[in-house]
Amino acid sequence: MVDIVILCVFGFAAGLIDAAVGGGGLIQIPALFNVLPTAQPAALLGTNKVAAACGTAFAAKSFVRKVVIDWRLVIPAACAAFIMAFFGAATVSFVPQSVVRPTVLVLIVLMAIYTFFKKDFGTLHKPMHVGTKEKVLAIVIGGAIGFYDGLFGPGTGSFLIFLFIRFFAFDFLHASASAKLVNIGTNVAALIFFIPTGNVLYLIAIPMAVFNILGALTGTWLAIHKGVPFVRTLFLILLAILISKLSYDLFIPN
Questions:
Q1: What is the rounded CA–CA span in Å between residue 177 and residue 179?
Q2: What is the rounded distance in angstroms from the CA atom of residue 164 to the CA atom of residue 8?
C-alpha cells in the first residue's frame, strides 16, 4: 500500500511536468524501477505507459479547449509518429545504446543552448501558411520523433516542442499543446504492444493513471494561466535535468 502511495505521488508530479513541457518519464520510470525492483522491466515500462497515456490524453483534451490547434499539422504528425513508433521499437535490438545515448545528449545540449540564447524563441505565436511543404515537414517531424520514442524515449515531448517552435513559428504554449496530441500517437502504439503481451501491472497502473491525470490537469492549467514565459522557463529546467540524467548514465559506471 505504501508503495502505491509513493508511486501515485510520483505519478502526479510526472503528469504535471509532462503536460507543460514533456519529460514525465524522467520522473515516473525511475520511480517504478526503484519502488518495484523485482518486477520485470517490460511490465514496469508498460505500467508507466498506461499511466502516462491517460495523463497525456487528459492534458491534450484540456489544451484543445483553451488553445487553437493547427490540425493540418498535428494530425499528419501524430499519424506518422504512431506508425514510426513501431519501427523504432523493432529497431531497438539492432541499434546499440552506446551510439544512441551520446547522440541524444549532444542534440539536447544544442537545443538547450539555442533556446537559452535566443531570447525570443517561442515567445510569439506567428504560425506560417500551411501548404504541402509544411504538411510533409510535419510528417517527417512526427515520424522521426515517433521512431525515437520507440527506440529510446527520453525527451520525446521536449524534442517535439522545440521542433514545432523552430519550424512552424509556434510559441511554447501552442507547441506544448501540439506535442501532447502527437504524443497520443506514440502512446497508442506502445499500448498496442504492452497490453496484449500482459506487460501491465494494473493494480499499480490504475491508481497511478488517476494521479497522472490529476497532475496533467494541474500542469495544463499552469501552462495556460501562467503563459509562455512560465513554460519556457520550465522547458529549460527540464532540459538541464535531462542533460544531467543522460550525462550521468553515460559517464558514471554502474
A1: 5
A2: 31
Residue with cell 499519424: 79
Report the alpha-carbon distance of residue 20 to residue 185 in Å, rounded: 18
Q: Is 247 helix (H, G, I), strand (E, B) or coil?
A: helix
Q: ∠ at Cα 139 (135, 141), nearest 5°?
A: 110
Q: Give me the half-sphere count of Cα atoms (radius 13 Å) on the Cβ side of residue 26.
A: 22
Cβ–Cβ contacts within 10 Å for residue 16, how many?
26
With contact defined as beta carbons under 8 Å apart, do 14 and 24 qualify?
A: yes
In three-state secondary structure terms, 166 is helix
- DSSP H helices in 118-201: 132-151, 156-168, 172-194
Question: How far is it, in rounded angstroms, from Cα 152 to Cα 128?
Answer: 31
Q: Take residue 224 and report the three cell numbers written for it.
A: 495556460
For 81, residues 6+ apart whose C-beta sits below 8 A from its C-beta are: 142, 143, 145, 146, 149, 182, 183, 185, 186, 189
d(CA 70, CA 98): 37
Which three-class secondary structure state does DSSP give residue 70? coil
Q: Cell numbers 494494473 correspond to what residue?
A: 202
pTM of the model: 0.86
pLDDT digits (tens, 9 = 90+) for 126-181: 877 788 999 999 999 999 999 988 887 778 888 999 999 999 989 999 999 999 99
Q: Residue 135 and residue 139: Cα distance in Å, rounded?
A: 6
Q: List pLDDT tens digits, range 179-235.
A: 999 999 998 998 888 899 898 999 999 999 999 999 999 999 999 999 888 899 998
Other Cβ atoms within 10 Å of 91 Cβ, number: 12
* Residue in the structure block whose three cell numbers are 509513493: 6
